[in-house]
Amino acid sequence: MKIGSLCTGYGGLDMAVEAYFGAYTVWCAEYDKYASELIEENFGYLNHGDISKIDWSAVEPIDILTAGYPCQPFSQAGQRKGTNDSRHIWPHIKEAIRVLRPKFVILENVRGHLSLGFDRVLGDLTELGYDARWKLIRASEVGAPHQRARLFVIAYPKHTDWENDWQTQELGRGSVARVDLLMQEPPARLDNGRVNLKFIEYMMGLPMGWVTDLDMLDNHKLKILGNGVVPQQAYYALEQLLVM
Question: What's the pLDDT tens digit per position in 56-109?
Fold first, then answer.
């Protein structure tokens, strides 16, 4: 199965989807300069760039569309401007779904999205002929040393019988499933009196050096890490959503 990834970040959601479905990512659409550098370094697949400027009819068809779209419009830590925020890109994701018609759409966002903007997302999915399931999952549920609650959504064309039509498997080409983060040796919390980025990388369930080995300033690495999702958390969410 082929994956198309929107707002890829450091790839945490896609790692989980690849592992759960035994799938592989063929392209992404990531606008951020530094996240794009990470994609080129760690993945090497085609990056279509700005999601608002893509002709979806010219994009390679995929089976699964993923999107960890920007959380700032909905986050309790921000101004919660919702659909009035310039970073609100859901309409472009909706257009991608309309044209590409994937078998699965897998979304991730912050808890605050449930009370701001999520009704529009569900309404649009219904309009496009998709049913949806969603669940709030904490990173601590898979052993991470922090809560980081995230909303996960899986949508699929109405009347889909995935038990017969879409066969999933325990573990595919990835390696994120059932990883107990607490069994890993954590790096030091501080590095010369400052927060150690490798410790944050560890808390996010990433391979050591996934972000921190990149040739960029620490503040750019910190932004990438802060915007990401724990892969093990996303994998667990898929397990929960596909057996409900």
Answer: 999 999 999 999 886 455 444 444 444 554 557 899 999 999 999 999 999 999
28 catalytic residue (yes or no): no
Which one of the listed residues 17, 28, 64, 71 is annotated catalytic? Answer: 71
- Which whole number is the average pLDDT over 113-139? 94
Sheet strand arrangement including 64-67: 46-47, 24-29, 2-6, 64-67, 104-110, 150-157, 130-137
Tokens matching residue 213: 């080995």
**β-pair type (2-6, 24-29):** parallel
CA distance 127 to 121: 10
Burial environment of residue 44 by CB neighbours within 10 A (0 to 12, 13 to 18, 19 or more) = exposed
What pTM, to 2 d.p., does this model score?
0.88
